[in-house]
Amino acid sequence: MKNATITAVLFLLAIHQGSANFQCPSATFVELGKDVRIDCLISDVNDIYWLRGTEEDHYPIVKIEMGLKTISKVAQDHFDITDTGALVIRDALNDLTGSYVMLHYRTDLVREVDTVTLNVTTLVDSIIIQGPSGGVYPMGSNITLTCTFQKGYVVGWKEYENKDIFVADTKVTADTKYDNFCVSLSDRVSNLQIIGAELEDAGKYSCNTESYAHVEIEAPPSFRIIFNDTNDGGTDSTDSHGVIDITCIARNARPAVMIRFETDGSEWINPSETWTVSNGVTFDTYATLKYNFRKNQTDVFLTCQTFGQKTVPPIEKIIHLFTPTCSLEMSNTEATCICISNPPVYKYMISIDGKLEVGKSLNVENFDGSNISCIGVNYIGVGISMFRVVESINAQPSLRIMFNFTDDEGNNSTESHGVIDITCIARNARPAVMIRFETDGREWINPSETRTVSNGVTFDTSATLKYSFVKNQTDVFFTCQTFGQGTVPPMEKTLHLFTPTCDLHVNTIEASCNCTSNPPVYKYILSIDGKMEVGKTLNVENLVGSTIICTGVNYIGVGTSKAIIVESNTGSSYLVYVICSVVVILGAVIVVFRRRKKSNLCYRNYCDLVITTVLHIPSE
């Protein structure tokens, strides 16, 4: 006996505990004198031991060890073990109430342990006053089954085939199917509640062994409507256009639904064909209506509806079928047919002056003035757009204005100054543009010369105006403008030409002439007391008292500045002469001393040098 105790203790200490891989009920109930099985749903059956009491009771009542089942002598009358490791209790007695410990040692030596409480109670059908009643419930709803019993007794709930779920309000099964089940107890009332019922919760439930409440769960279908074009030409009536199949599909319904149709608010129509497919628990139902379109019919609203379920309201789907509604869109080079329809357009055509071209778009660069329309065809009819006239495809040109000088002296009038060419160039226009001129806001003038060059799709146009300036004219504004395109507004460029405006700037050394003009000045002239000197600048140191005028010449005229008299710089000259005289005397002394003759010491530049280097006075 001592050796057996040591062996048991060593065996329990030699293993280590791991994560659970089983599901034992926390408690179970058995009616007095009946059998019960406590199953922990062990997935990896190896060595299993069931102990009565606590884990410290080291002697199992039943076990599977190394594949062999063993039942202890004290347990042979009431206990057994299945091949899957479930504890079986037969002919339950009151003194078997208590705790039972399951020990399992997996093949990887991980230890699993759990405790189950067994309650032996008196459960007799005669204590039930009123059993539960079933019904039909929508999926996702909460269901309550009620059982009324005599005070002082315990009531249990089971599913059909004696599968125990609850005793009192304690769940006695480890099956996860019942995770959304619970029991609430009050005085002589037991309520079995199913929360968020699923399809698998449908079944028969009872709180006794005589009557069961049947619970049926209804599932709404997913619903869609489709159409299919057929080759059926319809009836022989001249008004018949053809037949289209409208099919409604209700998937995963429980029970199977029925389907009916309605057209444009008329009475319900039975489908031409119906079939149902079972998915095991749910059903798919298909219903098809063959609808005959009339030739002048442009649209129809078709409705299909499910019906036949008790708790799920009817579901409807509507489809709108209509012939094409078409419009024609024009771009710079292309006409495009746009149609809206259901079913979609399967053929596009474009009519040009009555000639049909198959396709959705057409290049219309060479169809100026043509009548064009768009046609769309679907399986229930034809749609035609409004007619449009193809207009010239307009492309906006780039525009620039420039001038060029000529040798033309103009007419023989003494008022004529000369001729200048004003040229406007419009590039990449479609169609080719025309160009006209305007001077100083007067009426439009046609150009003296115009020429157009084709680039294939676009055109370049250049236009020249020969403009004669009069001698007393000082400026002119030229405007050239494009015109002749249907959708592109006229474009304008303006050029301002004017004779020089000149200013004369004079200091003690230099006179400078500055002029602004368009075109630019090509010749500057400075007049000194009427004598002309060509150039932009002039030294005026020796021109004190002289009158100077600045003149600028461009190709359209002459500009003259105001006359300026060159004034002497008296103060500074006097100082220079005094200093120069002193320098001359010093120079004479130096000459005598060195016996050198410096006869030209007082000329101006040498004097400046001496003043600068000897006396440190800046020269003028």
What topology does this entry show?
Layout: H1 2-13, E1 16-17, E2 27-31, E3 36-38, E4 47-52, E5 62-65, E6 68-71, E7 79-81, E8 87-89, E9 98-105, E10 110-121, E11 128-130, E12 135-138, E13 143-149, E14 156-159, E15 163-167, E16 170-171, E17 181-186, E18 189-194, E19 203-206, E20 213-218, E21 222-229, E22 240-253, E23 258-263, E24 273-278, E25 283-294, E26 299-307, E27 316-330, E28 334-342, E29 347-352, E30 355-358, E31 361-363, E32 371-378, E33 381-384, E34 388-389, E35 398-405, E36 416-429, E37 434-439, E38 449-454, E39 459-470, E40 475-483, E41 492-506, E42 510-518, E43 523-528, E44 531-534, E45 537-539, E46 547-554, E47 557-560, E48 564-565, H2 570-594, H3 604-615
Q: Looking at this structure, what is the CATH superfamily of the largest domain? A: Immunoglobulins
- Count of strand segments: 48
Structural class: mainly beta
- Regions with pLDDT < 50 over 5+ consecutive residues? 1-18, 234-238, 571-584, 588-620
Measured by DSSP, the beta-strand proportion falls in over 45%
Description:
- The protein folds into seven domains: 15-121, Immunoglobulin-like; 125-218, Immunoglobulin-like (Sandwich); 222-314, Immunoglobulins (Immunoglobulin-like, Sandwich); 323-389, Immunoglobulin-like; 398-490, Immunoglobulins (Immunoglobulin-like, Sandwich), CATH 2.60.40; 499-565, Immunoglobulins (Immunoglobulin-like, Sandwich), CATH 2.60.40; 573-615, no CATH class.
- It is elongated, with a radius of gyration of 58 Å.
- It is mainly β.
- The protein has three helices and 48 strands.
- α2 crosses α3.
- The N and C termini lie far apart (140 Å).
- Residues 1-18, 234-238, 571-584 and 588-620 have low confidence and may be disordered.
- The strands form ten sheets. Strands 1, 2, 4, 5, 6, 9 and 10 form a seven-stranded mixed sheet that branches. A six-stranded mixed sheet has the order 12-20-19-14-15-16, with no helix packed on it. It has a five-stranded antiparallel sheet with strand order 23-26-27-28-31, with no helix packed on it.
